[in-house]
Amino acid sequence: MYLTTFMRASLNVCLFLLCGCIPSETAKILLSGGFGDGSHFLSLVPLGKTLASRGHDVKYMVADAYLEPAAKLANSSLINFEVFHLPGLKEQVDDSHARLCDIAFADSKLSEMMRLLHLLSTINHDACEAVMMDEELLTRLSEYDGFVVDVVWVCGVYVKSYLERHRGTKDVPVVVLAPMTPIPYIFEEAGSPFVPSYQPVSLLKTMHSSSMSFIERCRNVFAYLSFVFMFDEMVFREPFADLVSRYDLHSDLTSTISNHVDLYFINSDFSVEFPFALMPNIIPVGGLTSRPANSLDNDLEEFMMSSGHHGVIIFSLGSYFAKITSTRPKFINMFIEAFSLLPQKIIFQLKELPPSELPDNIMALPWLPLNDLLGHPKTRVLLYHGGNNAFYEALYHGVPLVVVPLGGDQHDVGVRVLNSGLGTLIDMDRLSPDHIVEQLEEVLSNPAYQATARRLSAIFRDRPMSPADTAAFWVEHVIKHGGDHLRPRTQSMSFFQIYMIDILCAAISCSILLCCGIRSCFSYSCRLAKIKPKQE
Fold first, then answer.
1. Among 91-95, 110-114, 155-159, which is the least confidently predicted range?
2. pLDDT attached to residue 109
3. CA 48, CA 175: separation in Å to the nearest integer?
4. Can you give the pTM of this predicted structure?
């Protein structure tokens, strides 16, 4: 009898916990992260899995060319896909990745960057148009309760506008995720202040922290203005401008998406981020892809354990820059030569093996289970390109870093690594095997980096909910309640109104008028004083 009572009580507890984990109302949620590949897609995978585990019907929208790799990356039977078709998309995306690699080594980076931005604009436009032309897909999308879209491809915002104007859907919440370091675009659209006097501009090679000299603040302000007037237009708005008129979308989309977005996620955490003010419609969810390590397969585990007390160095250039391993053999050979001088074992993400044989201490793999490797006790340091996802994965596991920034937000991550004491930076202008060895040995031999990594990891992990759980909660929140209560008044105010420049101009004008009036009165009084009364 006591056993039966205990079993009933245990069952009730399990049901209570289960009901607490699954929301009372399930929703149909669409996730759109790039086209189904790379770090931007990977950032959405943990969110999708978390939402699906909470009982929601979750699907990713991907291009058909990326369906197979996306299914492997998602790795969940709970998640399905909405697929659109665009011939030649994969070739264009591969071309953009190759150009991104070229920018890191180009003499004229500005001209190369402009060409890349033009290519990205074309890809984003054509992919979004492919979605808008697919009537069957649009019919299915009209049944969704919420969209989560990546900041680099905000087509979901325009799809929402089309569905509201032509398919009768109403108030579909949209959440925009920025998986990179904080960019001014997000703050501008969210109506949250971005103050370039202490907020370094991302995605540009400024290499500034929040403590800037006068000259650095001048550069940062110029970079901020360049970002607002060039990058925002070319990547986030210009590609979709003709779609607004062609498909009769909301006219305000030609200038801003803010009226159609309920919430913004930024892949940042203040354990390592420079402090700044946020409006309530911006939620930090830094470390979405970080998680506890799983066990490695036998070959990897054996290689890791064979490193002895020296340990293992992980080397990865991520998904977007991995082509450098085949297109820049001299660049890769420098690292191979440097690794041959070290006693540590090296796990090297290498798309194609070089013609010469690798040293015995190197294991080359086309893909790395990075979270699992970082969580292994034999891992000593992560040498990598500076991607934001891997930055937080290393932070989660308390692993020091050596950053080789090549482009994008990688310079920004490098500054955060240096500023927080998590590791060192490899100077591309001094790149050589000796310089690589010097930076690695600095981190390997100085216990302060490991101590800092463990301390900041403890701060980062001390939270009531994981980043993916936090993001899932807020997605559910805006689906239930909308986002109007989070929307700041600043979204509908101009730059001059927000920063009270109009009031300052008015005050200066009034002061000038008052001074002119006082001067006129004083001059008139002086003239009267000079006029002598006539003698009678």
1. 110-114
2. 63
3. 13
4. 0.87
